[in-house]
Amino acid sequence: MSNKDVPTQQFNSLESWMRACADACRPELAQRWHETQAQDARSGQRRVHYLSMEFLMGRALRNALDALNLSGDFDAAARKAGHEGSAVLDREADAALGNGGLGRLAACFLDSMATLGLPSFGYGLRYEYGMFQQRIQDGAQIEQPDDWLRAGSPWEFARPEIRYTVGFGGRVEADGPGSMARRWVPAETVRATAHDMVIPGHGTRRVSTLRLWKASSTMPLDYASFSRGEHAGAAQQRLQAERLNWVLYPDDSTQAGRDLRLRQEFLLVSASLQDMIARHLAEHRTLDRLGDHIAVHLNDTHPALSAAELMRLLLDEHGLSWDEAYAHAHKALSYTNHTLMPEALETWPVRMLEELLPRHLEIIYEINARFLAEVAAKFPGDAELLRRVSLIDEQGERRARMANLSIVMSHYVNGVSALHSDLMVETIFADFARIWPERFGNVTNGVTPRRWLAQCNPALGAVLDKQLGDQWPTRLDDLGGLVGKGNKVSPTLIKAVQAAKRSNKERLAELIRRELGISVSPDSLFDVQVKRIHEYKRQLLNVLHVISRYQAIVANPQAEWVPRTVIFAGKAASAYVAAKSIIRLIHDVARVVNSDPRVGDKLKLVFLPNYSVSLAEVIMPAADLSEQISTAGTEASGTGNMKFALNGALTIGTWDGANIEMAENVGREHFFIFGLLADEVQRMKNLGYDPRLYYEENARLRAVIDAIGSGQFSPGETDRYRALVESLMNRDQYMLFADFAAYCDAQARVDELFRQPALWGETAVRNIAGMGFFSSDRTIREYAERIWRAPLNRA
Ligand SMILES: *Cc1c(COP(=O)(O)O)cnc(C)c1O
């Protein structure tokens, strides 16, 4: 055996270890799945069906071992075989069937649904390629396909017997005189086959199911043409079907608008609804009480075609009247809005719907006609109102508005944080809130404390077990007990939490050294911003502060600087030029800062490539400072903010999204809040915002912008950041300049506190203690009680 073979050998053995462990979990998962299905069928309770184009699951092995109480056995067995347990776990590929927050939320929700014993299914698509893998070449992002199924998934249960036919295109025929029923004759059909992942609950035998659809051709291979050597023609059918689940659309906040995306959305909707109806008929024989038995939740508008497809199935396939069908659909459907940004609001050209889903377009028109008649009766003479709320945008190319469709057909619509839900009814959905005020509400997001604390941060988990007992992962309010009588925090507890943080920082420093060859000091303040790269999230504001700090250090290297390691990670959508330019700038600035001998440990800047759930699990526990600095009014909730605080990071953040509720739960005095409020942002925009005034008045800001603009960080290409600088100087859509001074002041307050380790440590404990509210268990309880009216069966 040559030297070159050694790593391969080891790879194989760790990989087979990982697979063997997954295989060992499967029979128990399958057993629990059957028990849960039998219970739910017997009880006849309402089931929740969570429809989402994205489920950002990450790895499953540690979570399964944890849920099955096998973690201890696993660690011991791995050690005995001479393996590091974590090295075995690292061999599993992330299931990255999502882009960011929206997909990760769906994954946290499944964990809580299982844990709370909610009868539930998640429905999604089985993408062959998930979120792209990010590589960095010469400081620039390169996308590579994420071939996560290369070696097959150890967690899938293929269900070849569970399959449905999904149509596209064709025409609509009348079906009997005077009847609402029409017959859709699709031009093409594909078959959707179920592939299940069992989602185990914690502290319960109950599970949830993630059912992913795989599309394949309904046509048998055209053997005759194949035999004639016409391989291309024979393969055409297959390709046409299979391309449906090739790849996840990698854009997190603009609408794709492509034919293939519309087909993917309909595949999800149609297969899932057929599955629900088939299960309902098997259990109840009639559709009389369908709306009482199924809750269908739309994770954003991506599955909004559910409204039309459910109506079509009930009208055309099952012969219900319009009123009956509508009553079932309205009882079943509910919708969560995730963004107020206009570029993310989904609309589809009527022309595309006409071609691809002609019957659904008819149904949308009928829903619209009845809805507009109702509005006209309620608000007579308001033609402008009708134009604005119509399901069809008649200006320019006619387009169907998926948010409007979702609101009209749902019995409940929610936003994802208190501020977001308020803004939702004050701005984009103000007309609908006037029509149906009782339909709108808020359910603040949460994250699962199992993955995001117990599993990713065993060092802190052990401290909590000792202090609070071991029930906190399913009773997160217990964290409040970290603050003792008389509002005191025990110094021993602070020390123990700090020791856990220290070991997690060492682990991350080691990862940084291995990945980037950069040595960072675990004594420095780990200042972290990890999330999708987006202008509204303002990674660029963070970079401006880093440059300013660099300039100040160089000007005065002898001063008592608090050493900082500024850590970024995040992917930019492949076509998002401005976001990619920010990644490039981070690398350019990092090269200059990290190699400047005057700076040393006082400041280091690193960008960890390929942000993912698994990378987040290493980063979150090691952060001292969490950067949540979106322009107020733009971040719907954020969930990264919650993961950080749960792991004892302090937050520097704007008064935006769930930051607000976090600050209120923790105590504002333990948060670094800065910047304009949402209504101040709006007022300034209305008055005419001029970023140049800030540039001219603030010498510190001017020095930073001039350094970028002059090419100081890109000496080989001095105008590399011209577009970026011009966009800031002329428009600054997200008001970085307006918040720059306040941000720098807040960073100075961070330094001040970090100089007092005991006080910083106490503040960290108070932050953890205030996070009980942000468990996704609380979120799912609220959905179950208020929206789904479905039972929890926590055994
Ligand atoms: C939590 C999470 C997100 C969401 O982060 P935000 O800071 O809320 O935008 C995105 N990606 C991954 C991998 C996550 O774990």
UniProtKB/TrEMBL annotation:
Q: Name one GO molecular function term.
A: 1,4-alpha-oligoglucan phosphorylase activity
Q: Which domain of life is it from?
A: Bacteria
Stated EC number for the protein is 2.4.1.1
So what does this thing catalyse? [(1->4)-alpha-D-glucosyl](n) + phosphate = [(1->4)-alpha-D-glucosyl](n-1) + alpha-D-glucose 1-phosphate
Keywords, A to Z? Carbohydrate metabolism, Glycosyltransferase, Pyridoxal phosphate, Transferase
Q: Which residues form the signal peptide?
A: none
What's the cofactor? pyridoxal 5'-phosphate
Supply the InterPro entries for this chain.
Glycg_phsphrylas, Glyco_trans_35, Pyridoxal_P_attach_site
State the similarity comment.
Belongs to the glycogen phosphorylase family.
Job of this protein: Phosphorylase is an important allosteric enzyme in carbohydrate metabolism. Enzymes from different sources differ in their regulatory mechanisms and in their natural substrates. However, all known phosphorylases share catalytic and structural properties. Allosteric enzyme that catalyzes the rate-limiting step in glycogen catabolism, the phosphorolytic cleavage of glycogen to produce glucose-1-phosphate, and plays a central role in maintaining cellular and organismal glucose homeostasis.
Checking PANTHER family in the record gives:
GLYCOGEN PHOSPHORYLASE, GLYCOGEN PHOSPHORYLASE, LIVER FORM
Q: What is this protein called?
A: Alpha-1,4 glucan phosphorylase
Which species? Piscinibacterium candidicorallinum
